């Protein structure tokens, strides 16, 4: 019987140890050791499911014959196979009497009577089976079973990660094997072949990649300098604060200085640099090694010291990073990061950036949206990617299928080069559409606008034939700065946008921060950021920011008068009234200052389910509506658009989303207001056709997809689209809707346009 705390501690310790293992084999061997100990049993073994051969392989055991490691069991055989296929624990006092018992001679398991096996499941996939056995007839208790189930649930992710790392190591060691890839969400279509450059946020130990030292002696010197600088800094801070510190706090400073004087830590780092690892990577390895070691200590005082060591490591790292040279980006850079931020990819010279890979986030994260706008093939949410080991590795980014191939063989490279060529040819084919109208074969006009964020987007979009800007995400320039931009700075940025498109309209959305869009200089820390202080809620609470932004927009429109203002995240009419009041106030101020400007059209984004049910009340208060289908999908389906774990539940073709979209356009038209869609689904040819059929007046999308969508619009008729719409509105699930649409496109000879990688 376990005391609750004791069980938790044991669990935590095992998971941590396994997590810290150098490789997959070590992880498994630690696992069986510790579980055997924790359950005081004679045998613990782990069987891993081999996806290729469909066999369970005995990968590690304590208690069975070691020679049996490597033995394979077909997935249909024995108790192990049964645990796997039932995806449930099996607990037997006398295993041999079970009809599915299958004795494997090599293991010597005939001595063991009792058996408890639990499946290890990661993302619905059975990764393996964990088994404990005992020679005496013993029924493992309910607590034992609960312990093993809990452990296996936690270990699944650790194992998946270790397995992926192992696969990567194996592939690096002997290239030429089958293609190795990691899956994520295809976030921006296209193919990129290039060299991975792993970027880490500053002073974040965990994300420092492994990298070969360019110059060992220089790296050693840089490390010594960083240690010296950190030591001096700590001593100075310690001195300055000594009066205010309690003795135990002062002692902490002494401990730090002592640790830095102590040769052990420094020598370990230097020896790793001598082995060829660059200074930052060597520091990460040593510090995290110590941290893990300390975190496993039972004594709580000593365990706390892990925090001190990490803190020290971060300080030294910051010093190293402040002196280290900037990134050296190869001409075919594929940027890889734990979490890609817009600022990160702005750091890579535009002509060198080929692709983007992010461990976190998903296809509807804002980083992905910006990547799409720039046409950079991107895969997000590659959760099992051992990012730190990728630096300098040749990779293929398949933004269509959401795959990252590492060290591809020549065969795969050839296929992808061919695909990239075809893709280029397809894009060149679109060029001729630039000046042609966006019009169906039966004469229905559907204006295609563009979504912008970066200033460079606007010129590019104009060149691609956009008829206006349907959504300018003004928060993007805010995110590139380290303070709020001044009114003048904003005015200059906005002016460029307005001037590029004049006389066509530019719809500027007021600042939409919060959720996954953070400003480094205006942190918002919330448990539930997507349900929190976001968009209009923030700016109404800060009228000074709102007024300054609207004034800048109005002044920028001087003489052009093509400004439209749009409000994000509106969930009630009061917000519209308050915002309209502020806009009018800003207008009055600016015209009083002598500007001769027309009052801009004001619109609202429909992004929250509450707005869907109040479309008429909202529409009557404004000039236009635009559906933010990214957020609307997130809120209707209760799926965080940024969370890769639930990425496959996020689907804009979910019938409920389609029913809402249909209702919005009908209600808006009933009160005579135009309504557009500016979420990502507008830029997908399949959903664009559906939205057109529903009656949307305009679609606004990223510049990269604009001609792609136009090419489809020009090849279908409105009548055909309406028939397709009527068809899918009778269906009650998204996969069926998707395949119905695909089939219709295939039949119309447009299948290739929907999925260019289909032939791979
Ligand atoms: C949306 O939510 O659909 C939208 C266009 O806004 P954003 O993606 O910037 O949240
Ligand atoms: Mg939104």
Report what the structure shows.
The protein is α/β, with parallel strands linked by helices and 760 residues long. It is 47% helix and 15% strand. It has 27 helices and 22 strands. Strands 7-14-13-9-10-11-12-8 form an 8-stranded mixed beta sheet, with helices on both faces. β13 (394-398) and β14 form a beta hairpin. Residues 171-177 have low confidence and may be disordered. Bound molecules: phosphoenolpyruvate (PEP) and magnesium ion.
- Tell me the strand order in the biggest sheet: 7-14-13-9-10-11-12-8
**How much strand content do the residues show?**
15-25%
- Helical run tally: 27
What does the average pLDDT come to?
88
Largest sheet: 8 strands, mixed
Rg, Cα atoms, Å: 30 Å
Low-confidence blocks of residues:
171-177
Percent helix: 40-55%
Distance between the termini: 55 Å
**Bound molecule kinds, no repeats:** phosphoenolpyruvate, magnesium ion
- Counting helices, strands and paired strands, the structural category is alpha/beta
Overall strand count: 22
What is the approximate shape?
globular
Write the layout of secondary structure elements.
Blueprint (H helix, E strand, L loop, with lengths): L3 H17 L3 H15 L4 E8 L4 E8 L9 E3 L3 H9 L3 E3 L21 E9 L2 E10 L7 H32 L6 E4 L1 E4 L2 E9 L16 H26 L5 H15 L1 H12 L4 H17 L4 H24 L9 E5 L4 H6 L5 E6 L7 H8 L4 E3 L13 E5 L4 E4 L3 H22 L16 E5 L2 H9 L5 E5 L1 H5 L7 H15 L4 E4 L26 H6 L1 H14 L6 E5 L5 H20 L8 E6 L2 H4 L2 H5 L4 E4 L1 H9 L17 H16 L4 E3 L7 H10 L3 E4 L1 H11 L4 H11 L5 H14 L3 H4 L6
Parallel strand pairs: 9-10, 10-11, 11-12, 15-16, 15-22, 16-17, 17-18, 18-19, 19-20, 20-21, 21-22
Antiparallel strand pairs: 1-2, 1-6, 2-3, 4-5, 5-6, 7-14, 8-12, 9-13, 13-14
Helix pairs in contact: 1-2, 1-4, 2-4, 5-6, 5-7, 5-9, 7-8, 8-9, 13-15, 15-17, 17-18, 23-24, 23-25
């Amino acid at each position: 019987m376990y005391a609750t705390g004791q069980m938790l501690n044991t669990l935590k310790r095992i998971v941590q140890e396994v997590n810290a293992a150098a490789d997959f084999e070590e992880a498994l061997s630690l696992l069986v050791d510790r579980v055997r100990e924790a359950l005081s049993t004679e045998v613990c073994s782990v069987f891993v499911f081999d996806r290729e051969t469909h066999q369970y392989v005995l990968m590690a055991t304590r208690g069975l014959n070691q020679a049996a490691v490597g033995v394979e069991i077909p997935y249909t055989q024995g108790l192990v196979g049964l645990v796997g296929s039932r995806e449930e624990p099996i607990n037997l006092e006398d295993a041999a009497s079970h009809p599915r018992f299958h004795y494997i001679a090599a293991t010597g398991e005939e001595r063991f009577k009792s058996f408890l096996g639990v499946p290890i499941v990661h993302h619905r996939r059975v990764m393996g089976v964990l088994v404990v056995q005992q020679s005496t007839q013993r029924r493992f208790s309910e607590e034992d079973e609960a312990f093993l189930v809990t452990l296996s649930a936690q270990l699944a992710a650790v194992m998946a990660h270790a397995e992926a790392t192992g696969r990567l190591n194996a592939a690096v060691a002997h290239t030429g094997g089958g293609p190795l890839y990691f899956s994520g969400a295809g976030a921006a279509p296209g193919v990129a072949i290039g060299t991975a450059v792993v970027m880490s946020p500053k002073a974040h130990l965990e994300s420092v990649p492994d990298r070969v030292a360019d110059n060992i002696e220089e790296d050693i010197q840089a490390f010594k300098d960083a240690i010296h600088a950190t030591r001096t800094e700590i001593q100075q801070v310690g001195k300055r604060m000594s009066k205010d510190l309690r003795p135990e706090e002062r002692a902490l400073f002494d401990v730090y200085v002592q640790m830095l004087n102590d040769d052990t830590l420094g020598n370990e780092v230097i020896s790793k640099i001598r082995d060829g690892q660059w200074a930052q990577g060597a520091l990460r390895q040593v510090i995290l090694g110590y941290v893990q070691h300390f975190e496993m200590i039972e004594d709580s005082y000593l365990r706390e010291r892990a925090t001190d060591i990490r803190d020290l490591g971060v300080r030294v790292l910051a010093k190293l990073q402040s002196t280290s040279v900037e990134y050296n980006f190869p001409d075919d850079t594929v940027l890889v990061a734990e979490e890609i931020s817009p600022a990160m990819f702005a750091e890579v010279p535009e002509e060198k950036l080929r692709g983007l890979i992010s461990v976190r986030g998903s296809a509807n994260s804002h980083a992905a949206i910006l990547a799409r706008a720039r046409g950079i093939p991107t895969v997000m949410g590659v959760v099992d990617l051992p990012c730190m080991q990728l630096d300098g590795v040749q990779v293929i980014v398949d933004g269509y299928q959401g795959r990252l191939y590492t060290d591809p063989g020549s065969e795969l490279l050839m296929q992808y080069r061919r695909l990239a060529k075809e893709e280029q040819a397809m894009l060149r084919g679109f060029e001729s559409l630039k000046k042609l109208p966006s019009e169906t074969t039966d004469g229905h006009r559907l204006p295609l606008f563009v979504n912008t964020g970066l200033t460079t987007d606007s010129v590019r979009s104009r060149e691609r034939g956009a008829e206006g800007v349907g959504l300018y995400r003004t928060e993007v320039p805010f995110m590139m700065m380290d303070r709020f931009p001044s009114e003048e700075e904003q005015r200059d940025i906005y002016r460029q946008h307005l001037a590029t498109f004049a006389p066509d309209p530019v719809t500027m959305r007021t600042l939409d921060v919060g959720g996954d869009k953070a400003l480094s200089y205006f942190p918002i820390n919330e448990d539930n950021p997507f349900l929190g202080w976001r968009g209009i809620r923030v700016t109404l609470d800060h009228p000074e920011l709102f007024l300054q932004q609207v004034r800048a927009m109005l002044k920028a429109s001087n003489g052009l008068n093509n400004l439209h203002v749009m409000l994000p995240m509106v969930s009630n009419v009061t917000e519209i009234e308050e915002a309209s009041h502020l806009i009018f106030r800003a207008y009055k101020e600016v015209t009083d200052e002598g500007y001769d400007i027309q009052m801009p059209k004001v619109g609202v984004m429909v992004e929250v389910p509450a707005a869907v049910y109040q479309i008429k009340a909202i529409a009557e208060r404004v000039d236009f509506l635009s559906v933010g289908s990214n957020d609307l999908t997130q809120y209707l389906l209760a799926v965080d658009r940024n969370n890769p774990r639930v990425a496959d539940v996020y689907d804009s073709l979910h019938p409920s989303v389609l029913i809402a979209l249909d209702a919005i356009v009908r209600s808006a038209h009933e009160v005579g207001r135009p309504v557009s869609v500016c979420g990502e689904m507008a830029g997908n040819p399949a959903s664009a056709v559906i939205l057109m059929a529903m009656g949307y007046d305009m679609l606004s999308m990223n510049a990269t997809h604009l001609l792609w969508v136009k090419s489809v619009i020009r090849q279908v008729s409105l009548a055909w689209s309406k028939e397709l719409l009527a068809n899918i509105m009778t269906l009650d699930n998204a996969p069926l809707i998707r395949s119905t649409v695909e089939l219709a496109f295939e039949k119309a000879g447009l299948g290739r346009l929907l999925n260019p990688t289909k032939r791979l």
